[in-house]
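Researcher: Quick test of sequence recovery. Tokens follow.
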């Protein structure tokens, strides 16, 4: 199991933004429609408490 690197506040922000982006999927057209699919990444990282990009740059928002 990978260590968590996404803290509680970060998780809430990711979840809210992810759901908002996914909600815009049906409202937008063209290439902007597919931009909203980034919401899937935000929701997935919020649920798993792990962000691969944070790991690459050595960042963690979890309390130690």
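Model:
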């Amino acid at each position: 199991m990978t260590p968590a690197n996404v803290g509680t506040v970060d998780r809430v922000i990711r979840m809210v933004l992810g759901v908002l982006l996914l909600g815009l999927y049906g409202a937008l057209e063209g290439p902007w429609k597919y931009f909203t699919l980034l919401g899937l990444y935000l929701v997935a990282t919020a649920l798993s408490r792990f962000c691969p990009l944070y790991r690459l740059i050595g960042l963690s928002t979890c309390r130690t």
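The chain has one domain: 8-57.
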